[in-house]
Specification:
Distance between the termini: 139 Å
Structural class: mainly alpha
Shape: rod-shaped
Length: about 300
């Protein structure tokens, strides 16, 4: 019986190339790309891989490879990863699985929604393109998966949701309100690296400063109108016997006091509030009226100082 052939199945094209005698990296290049396949065949015919032609043959092969379109269009780490993919499949699969876990964690942190059908492809690209060490490339590649849900209080989740919440709070604490479209555009731009959160916070403060003109300098310096108006809110709550937590910058009395060229003083503000219909519904108003009424009756002599007729 003829001895078993220890070589892989016969392939005429490979045999003609003397494929099995090639270096593993050269074999990998042969498999990777049609252009590289042609380069390997050409180099073999020229004898660049023959031991007798070294080291000159190796240098000529390196020059030939460096001049290829494939070499010029792929970064060094991409070329190395591509070679590993075909020369050490076990290691490559392990790296891709590890990359998938990191990719999914990043997506969760950033509030991204990656379709299941695309995860494996993106995981391989994560490793191949070294996204772990190239954060900008990772961000640019995945910004398209940012998760927008118009049904919730906030449109985004994860880090994107934190950015949205911060912008909404800055607006609310300065008496402004923007549409969902504004926040979607802002967060997408910030997460995409086109602008910064500080740029949008500055935009919100500039709009607030133009609205609350007497306090423009303080708002632009970083103070919130909510804090600047807090003492007025307290006076309103005490005078009209309201829950201070329910008073906002949109309250008409707060606006009346603060949007004048010279804001009202707190004492004047309280006096103004006592002239409003709401004050008449308070216990303080009823007690004051009752006390004043008794005083008048005393002065008129209808009742004695002790309060009896």
């Amino acid at each position: 019986m003829a001895p078993k052939d220890s070589q892989p199945p016969r392939d005429l094209e490979r045999d003609e190339l003397n494929f099995f005698s090639l270096d593993p990296v050269v074999k990998a290049l042969f498999k990777l790309d049609p252009e590289l396949r042609s380069l390997v065949e050409e180099a073999e015919k020229e004898g660049l891989f023959d031991p007798d032609n070294q080291p000159r043959g190796e240098q000529l092969w390196i020059n030939k490879l460096a001049g290829s379109e494939w070499y010029g269009s792929n970064a060094d780490f991409v070329r190395k990863n591509l070679v590993e993919k075909v020369t050490d499949e076990a290691t490559w699969k392990t790296r891709v699985e590890e990359g998938k876990l990191k990719l999914l964690q990043y997506a969760a942190d950033q509030g991204l929604a990656i379709p299941k059908a695309e995860i494996d492809t993106l995981a391989e690209q994560f490793v191949l393109s070294d996204w772990e060490n190239r954060g900008y490339a990772l961000r640019d590649a995945l910004i398209q998966y940012i998760d927008i849900d118009y049904g919730d209080s906030f449109n985004f989740r994860g880090e994107a949701g934190d950015v949205e919440e911060a912008l909404r709070q800055t607006a609310a604490r300065n008496g402004l309100s923007f549409s969902d479209r504004y926040y979607v555009g802002a967060v997408t731009s910030i997460q995409g690296g086109n602008t910064s959160q500080g740029d949008y916070e500055r935009d919100i403060r500039e709009q607030a400063a133009s609205y609350w003109t007497p306090y423009a300098d303080k708002i632009l310096a970083g103070q919130d109108m909510q804090d600047l108006a807090s003492s007025y809110m307290r006076v309103l709550a005490d005078t009209h016997e309201m829950d201070v937590q329910g008073i906002t910058l949109n309250n008409s009395y707060i606006k009346h006091a603060l949007m004048q060229e010279t804001p009202m003083g707190l004492w004047d503000f309280e006096s103004y509030l006592r002239e409003q219909p709401e004050w008449m519904e308070t216990k303080d108003a009823r007690d004051t009226i009752a006390t004043n009424g008794l005083s008048i009756l005393e002065r008129m002599g209808f009742i004695g100082a002790g309060g009896t007729y």
